[in-house]
Amino acid sequence: MHGQMMDMPLLISSIIEHAARHHSDTEIVSRRVEGDIHRYTYSDCNKRSKQLANALSASGIKAGNRIATLAWNGYRHMELYYGVGGMGAVVHTINPRLHPDQIAWIVNHAEDSALFFDLSFAPIVQAIADKCPTIKHWVALCDADKTPAISAANDLKNGLTTGVVIDIKSYEAFIAPHSATYHWPEFDERNAVALCYTSGTTGNPKGVLYSHRSTLLHAYGSCLPDAMNVSAKDCILPVVPMFHVNAWGLPYAGPLVGAKLVFPGPMLDGKSVYELFEQEKVTFSAGVPTVWLGILQYVGANKLSFSTLKRTVVGGSACPPSTIATFRDQYGVEVVHAWGMTEMSPLGTLCKLQNKHLNLPVEQQQKLLEKQGHVIYGVDMKVVDDAGNDLPWDGKTYGNLLVRGPWVVKEYFKADGGDPLQYNAQGQGWFPTGDVATIDVDGYMQITDRSKDVIKSGGEWISTIDLENLAVAHPAVAQAAVIGVAHPKWDERPLLIVVKKPDAQVTREELLAFYDGKIAKWWLPDDVAFVEAIPLGATGKILKTKLREMFRDYRLPT
Amino acid sequence: MHGQMMDMPLLISSIIEHAARHHSDTEIVSRRVEGDIHRYTYSDCNKRSKQLANALSASGIKAGNRIATLAWNGYRHMELYYGVGGMGAVVHTINPRLHPDQIAWIVNHAEDSALFFDLSFAPIVQAIADKCPTIKHWVALCDADKTPAISAANDLKNGLTTGVVIDIKSYEAFIAPHSATYHWPEFDERNAVALCYTSGTTGNPKGVLYSHRSTLLHAYGSCLPDAMNVSAKDCILPVVPMFHVNAWGLPYAGPLVGAKLVFPGPMLDGKSVYELFEQEKVTFSAGVPTVWLGILQYVGANKLSFSTLKRTVVGGSACPPSTIATFRDQYGVEVVHAWGMTEMSPLGTLCKLQNKHLNLPVEQQQKLLEKQGHVIYGVDMKVVDDAGNDLPWDGKTYGNLLVRGPWVVKEYFKADGGDPLQYNAQGQGWFPTGDVATIDVDGYMQITDRSKDVIKSGGEWISTIDLENLAVAHPAVAQAAVIGVAHPKWDERPLLIVVKKPDAQVTREELLAFYDGKIAKWWLPDDVAFVEAIPLGATGKILKTKLREMFRDYRLPT
A66-70 and A168-170: which strand pairing? Predict the structure, then answer.
């Protein structure tokens, strides 16, 4: 027997329509590629998204077509989220930090029908235009008078072009002829709304195809007090890029709650972001640890403080405990540790105290807050051994972390790689995250490693992340990475690789002594290697595959 | 093209399963009808809900069957929510304050298969047992040794019984033989989960049949920071009864976020509730204004304060501004005004400040907080004239309030009363709330009256609620109601009906003078009537139909 409640599909168009109706004059502020500041309201955003939907329809774009973007965080990118998704097409955000060959591969795999790009990325368009036959429309996110002239290159390295000039429209010219009157269509909420490829460090990238339903449920979950805790009292600046798992859902969460949004555009250095924080009275932000290090360095060097910023969510990779402590103790800013994946829309866990923790000693609270945290309702998780058996939630036992929920991937786009799920006795599928983690009795999860990075020494596991976090707490260390290197007796032993801070001096022995009393003796790295730079991937994560290659022939001291 | 995300139905069993897995030892504390305090955890609650599901199945209860409850807020009622709903049956909460004849009518209309009741309500069972042929199981919510012996009455007024002893089981005996091992079944999320009848002041009660989907979406929405703002940091005491629109969804919201829950059982007087607040360190509560008046009186008379209570949500009827002010100024407790209906699951709007209001003068903030508030994403609303045309959102223009959303009723149970919706040009159905309201430019709604209560004087509307709120701010007034009475020239004019506080003295002239400068001159009531009591309905609302009957022959002074 069905309930007798209104039956309306969960579509992302309802979010922008809600914001336009009920928070009509709340602002969206964007720093543009041109360098100036652009301001308008949710009402304006909805109107222009509708204009875009009309323009796309007039250009022959149909429901289900993929529309690629190479763009920073900004209001036109926001309009693409809603205009493309709202009309039933799929917004395919591409990470511009990937190599052009990879980008071309992704565009072809997705069979994108159009590509919208910021002027910063004209060189990418030049490089891939000849290789992407499915793209029918190249649209530059700029005013009509800024439309770039780009010739396709077939030999970029040597600067040779085919001489074929690409037909490029400006975004403003593309939407200008079209009406802002448009009724967002109603359709199956399980239809696709967005596509994002994982920046896998091995093999080809894999696409995750989000549905309207999964995106909306994730949006509700992401705003909860124990998650992002965003409200109409907030002014949100997403530093995390809109090309990186939908900026962790903030372009949906913001209008859902009617928060003011501030988009930083291409300028993500500490100074530029800090200035926007202050000018626009930002209360909440989110980004990867490296961004926060940059901001802290700028603020510290200039003896500044944060006058409105209250909370930040840090994710993408583990945030060093020292960064959390600096924000809290020096600046009164709460850093919330978060964990997720492209395959999870992306939020899985966030780390906040609960009622039962409020009377714990501060050190215990801080220790807890270094974990990746507690699931939001909607996500379930467990740790299992290699045979798939459940492991205890004791905060100690390491296992492979599996997740499940309505905003978790079921299979990759075009079912690439077959069925990735592991099934339990009840036939429920669980997604293997590739992370190794512990879960404690209160449900707090802590990543101890990527399953392919964990060091297996004499049958026991050593967490490279723990060793790295301890190393970066040393005042002379700018960056640190730990990898396993072959060892005749123990199979693998840890090697600490360090980038020193400019002008800082520290020796191998001093660094190893720094671990004293903080870890089990047998975890101590066998050696330290000093390097100029540690290779990072397109989303700012340490490329351990590359590091292992670099140190392939390295021999540990005996 | 469908997205490729995990496809799992939104079922309420996933809420209690989430709480049991991820907040396993968080407590549910209940004051029982027996007077003692019962404590257990979400893990226990899930286990016993599963036992109940097994017991119901063994008793022949099938998916879709309606299971009635006559019960206070307590852990066994919670188990009924999850055990009944989780197995696919429908928990039908009945308001025990209704007349037994109405209760029998509702049970028969719903064709309930079983009835679970607190011992307090044994007299109701006695009165209705003979009249409810669909009930196959009568279960008393008590231990086996407390099972009451009840004979059916066919002439309750005169204490005559049929002599037929009703077969009553105790809840504990009912579930004891059954295993706590049970896999919550997966089924269509649009299936019904709960049923609640409106306590309509005219005509027969009408049933609202909630679905799993509507209940879950409402639960997400209700926890948002701008709504109930509940989190795992909270200890929630729902004073609002679980027989009254699912205690505003708190039995779902609590386990969704992992908050500690405290159920007050039958003792809702100021002293009893206050003592639970203090003993259990309650941070958040919710209830109708009359409950809060009782608590304030007790706390004031005994010169107490609230040591942990931070926030309350007040709804059901408009909360007098003076109550909001007393909580804020004397006790540091935030009172959040809320508005909803049985037909809306029930939450529609809540009243909190937004980013743009934070720098307003305090008086303007307070004025704003007296409104019913802003919709949660998921609910849309508008005001229309009698012809259905949209009225402006200017904070002044009154109109009929219509709502729409995935947790709003589509039609009443068994389609009673035909299609209640009003359709717009796009064919979207809107539910007419029966309220008259204004909406301001920021989307804040304020109820000015029930459409049947509003006073139409010389073609203009006068809000009875405004007049009542002003009257109860007078120190001598305990309760106030305003109704329209016939007037030869103006059609209708307002009559103020007042219950004085014990020992308080006030005259007609003093009360009318109290309105000076606070309202338009033509709004001033034409007369004041002092009464001993104002008739209240089963949910504590003023019965204006009754008042109009009482004052049918009343003639205004000329």
Answer: unpaired
Cα dihedral angle (B246, B252, B255, B259), rounded to 10 degrees? Answer: -60
In this structure, what token pair is assigned to residue A347? 């939020």
A456 is catalytic: yes
A371 is catalytic: no
Contact residues on chain B for A226, CB-CB shorter than 8 A: 231-233, 257-258
A410 vs B354: CB contact, 8 Å cut-off? no
For residue A2, give both structure tokens.
């069905």
**DSSP 3-state percent helix, strand, coil across chain A (nearest 5):** 30, 25, 40
Q: For residue B471, which phi and psi values (nearest 5 degrees)?
A: -65, -45
Q: Return residues 379-398 of B near A (CB < 8 Å).
A: 380
Cβ of A15 within 8 Å of Cβ of B231? The answer is: no
For chain A, the residue count is 558
CA separation for the pair A428, A432 (Å, rounded): 13
Active site (catalytic) residues of B: 198, 343, 456, 461
How far apart are the C-alpha atoms of B256 and B228, rounded to whole Å? 13
Give me the residue from B211, B220, B259 closest to A5, CB to CB.
B211
**Distance in angstroms (rounded) separating the CA atoms of residues B388 and B402:** 10
Q: Is the peptide bond before A96 cis (omega within 30 degrees of 0)?
A: no
Residue A310, chain B, CB below 8 Å: the answer is: no
What is the three-class DSSP state of B60?
coil
**What CA dihedral angle connects A531, A532, A538 and A544, to 10 degrees?**
0
Per-residue pLDDT of chain A (558 residues; tens, 9 = 90+): 999 999 999 999 999 999 999 999 999 999 999 889 999 999 999 999 999 999 999 999 999 999 999 999 999 999 999 999 999 999 999 999 888 999 999 999 999 999 999 999 999 999 999 999 999 999 999 999 999 998 877 555 555 566 678 899 999 999 999 999 999 999 999 999 999 998 665 578 899 999 999 999 999 999 999 999 999 999 999 999 999 899 999 999 999 999 999 999 999 999 999 999 999 999 999 998 888 988 999 999 999 999 999 999 998 777 888 888 899 999 999 999 999 999 999 999 999 999 999 999 999 999 999 899 999 999 999 999 888 999 999 999 989 999 999 999 999 999 888 899 999 988 899 999 999 999 999 999 999 888 888 888 877 778 888 899 899 999 999 999 999 998 888 888 999 999 999 999 999 999 999 999 888 888 999 999 999 999 987 767 788 888 998 998 888 887
| B233 in contact with A, Cβ within 8 Å | yes
Is residue A339 annotated as part of the catalytic site, yes or no?
no
Q: What is the DSSP letter of B355?
A: G
Q: Tell me the C-alpha distance between A440 and A532, whole Å.
A: 38
For B157, B325, B370, B409, B523, the CA distances from B481, given in Å and listed in that order, are 32, 21, 18, 30, 14
Q: Which of A93, A198, A312, A433 is catalytic?
A: A198
Burial tier of B556 (Cβ tally within 10 Å: 0-12, 13-18, 19+): middle
d(CA B84, CA B64) in angstroms, rounded, equals 10
Residue A368: closest CA among A382, A380, A358: A358
Neighbours of B9 (CB within 10 A): 17
How are beta strands A429-439 and A399-404 bridged, if at all?
antiparallel
Q: From start to end of B32-150, where are the E strands?
A: 37-41, 66-70, 90-93, 114-117, 137-140
Is the Cβ of B411 closer than 8 Å to some Cβ of chain A? yes
Q: Do A225 and B229 touch (CB under 8 A)?
A: yes
Strands (DSSP E) contained in B60-181 are 66-70, 90-93, 114-117, 137-140, 151-155, 160-165, 168-170
Quick one: DSSP state of residue B415?
Answer: G
CB contact under 8 Å between A354 and B232, yes or no, is yes
